[in-house]
Specification:
The chain is an alpha+beta fold. About 30% of the residues lie in helices and about 25% in strands. It has 7 helices and 17 strands. Strands 8, 9, 12, 13, 14, 15, 16 and 17 form an 8-stranded antiparallel sheet that branches. A 5-stranded antiparallel sheet has the order 1-2-3-7-6, with helices on one face.
Length: about 290
């Protein structure tokens, strides 16, 4: 077990305090689907997610400062600067999916962004949009208007996180698309450091905080297969499971196929072999 005082658990991550300035964020191998954590783990999933986050933090430092201090030799733990987190989720959507698609179908707009008529599920948007949400402990985050977001963080700070979120998304989505992965949408979390400056926190641009789609299979006008979780979803649908706790155990071939997809996402995006990452996690930082 890592050192530090346990501060909290996410569905698949753990947070520890190392001292008054530093936190340890540990990514487990747990996997969730349809909002339920499954009883079977995906070996190395936490390492893939930590490696990808660290990779993006290293490559986006010039766009926006971030909380990363170090990746531990276990490859799944990140030492981070302790921040005062903002009470909103900074979602950017480049494609119409999930709650964005739902809201568009209901009223033609998403978080106050009026969109062209006639868009289909999974269509690419004319330009990426910033669609803030409130943090709900249930994980069912609620889209909010920019007026409500401004009331929560201040108009000036909202404008700054919008600009930063769009810049980060554009950079990563362009980069990923060249490597065959569509980042359909993503969620950033920002905090303020001791001097009040905005800092990117949490995890960033991972398949758990984003929708990753295989670009080769992209076919709008319907839902897209998930780059990482499709085998798990297909298996779960097949079993007739009611999507309430507890979820089903995953068979070995679903575990192996899913692990391979996580490793493939890591290797495509970073250009680094996952074995090299396991041997020395610092490789993602240069
Ligand atoms: C992140 C979370 C997890 C449970 C708080 N740099 C930071 N400073 C202060 N707070 C946080 C961070 Cl990243 C912070 N979370 C999300 C992560 C387990 C909750 F691993 N909560």
């Amino acid at each position: 077990m890592p050192d530090g005082v346990h501060l909290g658990s996410g569905k698949v991550r753990e947070l520890y305090a190392l001292d008054d300035r530093r936190l340890l964020l540990v990514a487990s191998d747990r996997i969730s689907t349809f909002d339920v954590v499954l009883p079977t783990e995906i070996p190395d999933k936490g390492r893939v997610l930590t490696g990808l986050s660290a990779f993006w933090f290293a490559r986006t430092r010039a766009l926006c400062p971030n909380h990363l201090l170090a990746v531990r030799p276990d490859g799944r733990s990140m030492e981070c600067r302790r921040l005062e987190m903002l009470p909103i989720e900074c979602v950017v959507r480049g494609y119409l999916s999930g709650s964005g698609w739902k809201d568009y179908r209901a009223n033609g707009e998403v978080c106050g962004h009026r969109l062209p008529d006639g868009l289909r599920e999974s269509d690419r948007l004319p330009a990426p949009i910033f669609t803030p949400a409130t943090k709900a402990p249930s994980g069912h985050d609620e889209n909010i208007t920019r007026a409500r977001a401004a009331a929560l963080v201040g108009a000036e700070r909202l404008a700054e996180v919008e600009r930063l979120s769009l810049a980060l998304y554009r950079f990563a989505a362009d980069y990923a698309l060249e490597r065959g992965i569509i980042i359909a949408d993503t969620k950033f979390e920002f905090g303020r450091d001791g001097d009040g400056r905005l800092v990117l926190g949490d995890e960033a641009l991972t398949p758990d905080s984003s929708r990753f789609w295989p670009a080769a299979d992209y076919a709008p006008a319907g839902p897209q297969p998930s780059f990482d979780k499709q085998f798990v979803r297909d298996f779960c649908e097949q079993t007739g499971w009611g999507k309430t706790h507890p979820g089903p155990e995953l068979p070995g071939e679903v575990v192996a196929g899913t692990r391979a997809r996580y490793v493939e996402a890591f290797e495509r995006l970073t250009g680094i072999s996952f074995d090299d990452y396991l041997a020395d996690p610092q490789v993602v930082l240069s």
